[in-house]
């Protein structure tokens, strides 16, 4: 009863500032916001949905939430895969009205945007000016937001060259979830006389506190992002390995990184199984399926001049065709509707479709994602360990769910020694199979954490699994809890993530020995 009156009072006090159009507790709204793209989770209904437009409105909501001790979860595009942007009870903040482009500064190469702006809206404006943020957002598409990308430490298109979304972040304007709803700016903008042109040198890097935090440390309202002139000359080439050999994948990937350097925009590797699945689904099949014997490299290059691009292409051919272990490949060998690499042109739409086609090879099945980064020198070992896990634990998978990825895993190379292994387990969104699905999903993540994998979107299921695996030392966990308490003394923001329910909660009760 008390709870209902608390929620009612909070509703009224938020409505007084936001107006009646941007707050709701109607069932149809709660249902509409009850899910992300996270199949193993049940529907979860928030008590109140709010759509603030300004940082000051977010601050007001936070103050009210603290007054009534109601928990909050921030949400951008809602394309999370791991239970991150839904809330059971409490206040769900839909930030998509914070979608303004405040400044595009072509002299100093930065832009200031509202964190609820989508990648699509932002990139379309930047493209008109020949500019780019480098990384072009996640594979979920252009309706995901910048705030989601920063919070999930998103990897995406062009990450091989430009890194993760936090790598292009110069600073943020963020509302701390404390009773005062404090608004702070980080990076150079922490100096109130400066423009946000750089991240370091004014104060400790407090920007980092909010990067990859999956919405636990603050509500990001504005982002200050790096800009780059978009190199106008781009090309893509494909090569097939003749053997299914991930040591060779590592060697070639390493060499491409070293010798092509700045020209290498994206480097992806699709596994052996994928062409077979795509051939089965193609509308316009060649008469015969070609012999596919190994993973396929997709190499995207960019340059400021056609002549430089030609040199890059020459170097790539030299590396990839040096011995008889690789051959040039065309996706037309699988599907006649695919574009030949010589005719390939970069467009935002094409990038998105390409990704969707590659990962959605088994669309009717839902997937519990297990995407994570590994050091590239440990690529082969990590791939083998993943396969072995599925074999060893096949009996624990829910009935009728195959113990192999439902979307084919593939690799994306990142700057330095990083490589992403994209993948997911077959999941079931039925009440009878939910527990088994969740159990095997958490177990698989714990396994990856223990061989040294680093994930990116952590949401609920992955952040909890990392804690369960015992990855964090007691000292780290104490530091984390203290930092959380400093920004969120009532532990109201995203309380389920990392099993951070309250300052006094004993996280060790969640440790699992497998
Ligand atoms: C088909 C598919 C492909 C995908 N591919 C990729 C991929 O290639 N790379 C990748 O990284 N991810 C990928 N994802 C996952 C997800 O879409 C991305 O991580 C994306 O960046 C999330 O953005 P969003 O705006 O939808 O965030 P949401 O889902 O709304 O939120 C994500 C997390 O961030 C928090 N959050 C959101 N906005 C804020 C804010 N302003 N302040 C504080 N916290 C906030 C939320 O609480 C939540 O924990 C994919 C998802 C799907 C469905």
Describe the structure.
The chain has 514 residues and is an alpha+beta fold. Helices cover 33% and strands 18% of the residues. α1 runs antiparallel to α3 and α8 runs antiparallel to α10. A 7-stranded antiparallel β-sheet has the order 15-12-14-13-18-19-17. A 5-stranded antiparallel β-sheet has the order 5-6-10-8-9. The site of flavin-adenine dinucleotide has 36 residues, from β3, α5 and β10.
Lay out the secondary structure.
Blueprint: H1 2-18, E1 23-24, H2 27-32, E2 48-50, H3 55-68, E3 72-75, E4 91-94, E5 101-105, E6 110-114, H4 119-128, E7 131-132, H5 146-151, H6 159-162, E8 169-175, E9 183-185, H7 207-210, E10 219-226, E11 228-229, E12 233-241, H8 246-260, E13 264-270, H9 273-281, E14 296-303, H10 306-320, E15 326-328, H11 348-359, E16 366-369, E17 372-375, H12 379-392, E18 410-413, E19 418-422, E20 424-427, H13 431-450, H14 461-468, H15 474-487
Parallel strand pairs: 2-4, 3-4
Antiparallel strand pairs: 1-2, 5-6, 6-10, 7-11, 8-9, 8-10, 12-14, 12-15, 13-14, 13-18, 16-20, 17-19, 18-19
Helix pairs in contact: 1-3, 8-10, 13-14
């Amino acid at each position: 009863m008390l709870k209902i009156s608390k929620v009612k009072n909070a509703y009224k006090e938020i409505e007084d500032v936001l107006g009646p159009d941007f707050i709701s507790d109607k069932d149809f709204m709660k249902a509409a916001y009850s899910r992300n793209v996270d199949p193993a989770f049940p529907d979860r209904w928030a008590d109140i949905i709010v759509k603030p437009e300004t940082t000051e409105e977010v601050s007001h909501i936070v103050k009210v939430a603290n007054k009534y001790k109601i928990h909050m979860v921030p949400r951008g595009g809602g394309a999370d895969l791991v239970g991150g942007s839904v809330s059971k009870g409490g206040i769900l903040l839909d930030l998509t009205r914070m979608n303004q482009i405040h400044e595009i500064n072509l002299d100093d190469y930065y832009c200031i945007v509202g964190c609820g702006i989508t990648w699509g809206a932002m990139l379309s404006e930047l493209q008109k000016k020949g500019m780019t943020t480098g990384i072009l957002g996640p594979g979920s598409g252009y309706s995901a937001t910048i705030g989601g990308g920063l919070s999930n430490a998103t990897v995406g298109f062009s990450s091989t060259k430009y890194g993760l979304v936090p790598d292009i972040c110069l600073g943020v304007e963020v509302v701390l979830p404390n009773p005062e709803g404090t608004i702070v700016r980080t990076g150079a903008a922490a100096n109130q006389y400066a423009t946000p042109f750089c991240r370091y040198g004014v104060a400790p890097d407090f920007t980092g506190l909010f990067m990859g935090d999956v919405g636990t440390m603050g509500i990001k309202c504005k982002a200050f992002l790096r800009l780059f002139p978009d190199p106008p000359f781009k090309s893509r080439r494909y090569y097939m390995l003749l053997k299914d050999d991930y040591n060779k994948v590592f060697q070639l990937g390493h060499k491409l990184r070293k010798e092509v350097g700045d020209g290498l925009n994206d480097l992806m590797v699709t596994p052996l199984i994928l062409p077979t699945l795509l051939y089965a689904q193609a509308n316009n099949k060649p008469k015969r399926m070609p012999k596919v014997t190994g993973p396929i490299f997709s190499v995207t290059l960019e340059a400021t001049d056609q002549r430089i691009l030609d040199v890059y292409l020459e170097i790539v051919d030299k590396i990839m065709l040096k011995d008889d272990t690789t051959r040039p490949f065309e996706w037309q060998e699988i599907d006649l509707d695919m574009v030949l690499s010589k005719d390939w042109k970069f467009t935002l739409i094409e990038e998105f479709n390409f990704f969707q086609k590659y990962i959605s090879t088994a669309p009717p099945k839902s997937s519990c994602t297990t995407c994570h980064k590994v050091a590239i020198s440990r690529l082969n070992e990590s791939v083998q360990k993943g396969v072995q896990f599925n074999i060893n634990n096949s009996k624990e998978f829910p009935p009728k769910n195959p113990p192999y990825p439902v979307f084919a895993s593939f690799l994306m190379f990142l700057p330095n020694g990083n490589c992403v292994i994209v993948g997911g387990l077959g999941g079931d969104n039925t009440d009878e199979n939910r527990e088994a699905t969740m159990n095997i999903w958490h177990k698989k993540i714990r396994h990856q954490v223990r061989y040294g994998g680093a994930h990116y979107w952590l949401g609920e299921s992955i952040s909890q699994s990392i804690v369960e695996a015992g990855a964090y030392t007691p000292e780290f966990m104490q530091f984390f809890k203290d930092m959380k308490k400093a920004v969120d003394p009532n532990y109201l923001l995203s309380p389920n993530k990392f099993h951070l329910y309250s300052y006094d909660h004993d996280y060790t009760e969640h440790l699992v020995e497998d």
